[in-house]
Structures are given as C-alpha cells and as structure tokens.
Design goal:
By secondary structure, the protein is an all-alpha fold. The protein contains 15 helices and 2 strands. It has a two-stranded antiparallel ribbon with strand order 1-2. Helix 5 crosses helix 10, helix 8 packs antiparallel against helix 9 and helix 14 crosses helix 15. Strand 1 and strand 2 form a beta hairpin.
C-alpha cells in the first residue's frame, strides 16, 4: 500500500531502474569490503568523533553517563539492574551507523513485485530477485548459491558495523547529555539547552547522515559513494567559525602552531 502511494508521486525511469539493479548493489558490496571488513574504519571514526566532540565542548563525565544510558536499553543492563537517569529523546541514538552507509539486509524476500523493488535497498533488490528465481527449478541452485555468497559477505562485516554503531551512539549521547545539563567536570559553566536544541547540537557536530534528498541519492551519492560524509564535514568546516567564533579562533591558533 505504501509503495502504491509513493508511486503516485515518483515513477523511476529506465535508467534509474537499471542503476538500482546493477551499479547500486555493486557499490553496496564494495562498501562492505572497505568499511565493515577493515578495522581501521572503526579506529578512524573514533578518532574523528573524539575531535568533533571536543570541539563541541563535551563534558568528559558525560561519556560515563552516555555509556550507562546505552547499557540501560539492553537486556544485559536490565539483568544488572541498570536504569536510565537521563531521558534521551528520539534522534540522539541512531539505529544504524551513518544512516545506512553500510548495507543492511532486509527480512522480506521474494514477495515484492517489480514495481515495488525500486523502494528497497540495493542489495535487497538482488536478494528479492534471487528469491523469486528459486521458484524455477533450473535457476534454484545458482540462485541459492549466489544468495548465500551475498548474505555471507554482508554478515562478515556485521561485527565491526555493530561496534561502529555503539561507538557513534556513545559519542552522540555524551554530547547531548553534556549540553542539556550544561556542566563540565561537575561545574555549571553553560546554560542547559532544551532537549530539542540538544538534538540539533548533536547533529551539528556529529551529523545526521539520514538527511539526503532523492536528487542527492540519484546523483551525488552514486558518483561519490561517501557523499554523506563529504557533504557534512564540508558544511561543518564552513559554518563552524561563524557559529562558534571563539572556538574557531582557538582552533585556528592551534593549527598555526
């Protein structure tokens, strides 16, 4: 039903359909190889978030609180009796690292029509077609084998992908808690921000990777696979000195030294 409603406003052309069934899945598979299967990705993200959270003026003690809030949402935390002490609104913790930079497999396979496929993630398109191909005896074995290879490749990257998500949310939670409490090492140095402004502050420094227009997905992100990061870090670099002039002067002086 949702796909039918969306179809009223968006009808992909032949080129768009071809790209989503060929180029896009290949790029997703490539991302797995250079991101999820490379521990350096996790290291680089932690270093980058450390620098950005420092520029945000994050209270070191907020990292302890953020870790506790994350633990409180898990089954382990429930068993240990860890309870939430800070209300974390929607938009602070993200479900996936970088809003889907790394591929995630869906659970519904084989039951989607060709008209619905252009609303699925690229790799899901391949898996759906392979699921449908399994209905034909001549194609069953190669379809099963190809599906297994794709799922196995993505599964190999899940551990590092999960650690990246945990690390990202840890930093995001710390920045949010620091700003809504207005404290630094126990001292009230800043005026506490309202929750809504706190979320905006988090996204200013650690970015909201889900904000992509359809045009960006169809053009820039295809030509530049890491367009999300490039766009956000460029925008941040240009706006940071104007929004935070004092911090900008300090950073500039440090870079000159």
């Amino acid at each position: 039903e949702i796909a039918k409603e969306l179809n009223r406003f968006y009808k992909p052309g032949t080129l768009e359909k071809t790209m989503r069934m060929t180029y896009d899945p290949l790029i997703d598979m490539w991302r797995v190889g250079i991101l999820n299967l490379v521990p350096r990705w996790l290291y680089n993200n932690v270093i980058g978030n450390t620098m950005l959270s420092t520029l945000a003026g994050t209270d070191p003690l907020a990292f302890i609180k953020s870790g506790r809030e994350m633990l409180a949402t898990t089954k382990i935390g429930e068993k240990l009796g860890v309870t939430s002490k800070v209300e974390i609104p929607k938009g602070v913790f993200q479900k996936r690292y970088a809003g889907g930079e790394s591929p995630v497999l869906g659970e519904r396979l084989g039951g989607l029509s060709k008209e619905q496929l252009h609303f699925q993630r690229p790799i899901d398109n391949w898996l759906n077609l392979l699921e449908q191909a399994k209905q034909y005896k001549a194609l069953r074995i190669p379809a099963v084998a190809t599906q297994g290879l794709i799922k196995g490749w993505v599964a190999l990257g899940k551990p590092i992908g999960y650690l990246n998500k945990v690390a990202e949310n840890w930093f995001r939670g710390a920045v949010y808690i620091s700003k809504v409490e207005g404290k630094f090492l126990g001292l009230e140095l800043d005026k506490p921000l309202p929750p809504i402004e706190g979320v905006k502050y988090v996204n200013e420094f650690l970015f909201d990777y889900t904000k992509l227009t359809r045009a960006e997905r169809a053009t820039f992100r295809r030509a530049l696979p890491f367009w999300n990061w490039m766009k956000n870090i460029t925008e941040f670099s240009l706006k940071f000195p104007a929004r935070h002039p004092m911090k900008g002067l300090i950073v500039g002086a440090l870079l000159q030294d």
